[in-house]
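Appendix C. Worked example: Fe(2+) transport protein 1
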Amino acid sequence: MKIKAIMVFFIATTTPFGIALGIGLSNVYKDNSPTALIVVGLLNACSAGVLNYMGLGNLLVADFMGPKLQGDIRHIIKRMH
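Step 2, the predicted output written as structure tokens:
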């Protein structure tokens, strides 16, 4: 129960913290500075990697399960979480 409360706390505070951080940094952010371009590139690469990993993981799970397990919807749902 304690772990769930901690997870709920972090999920609930992440967005407001990100908004406040963005507002605070908007005054010092320069669009064309080399540092900003590198940071944006790295963040874009990380998010693309996570999307590829999640997409391919969900697509390939069914291929690696045997034919016996492919018909069991409960097992498939359990594997996705």
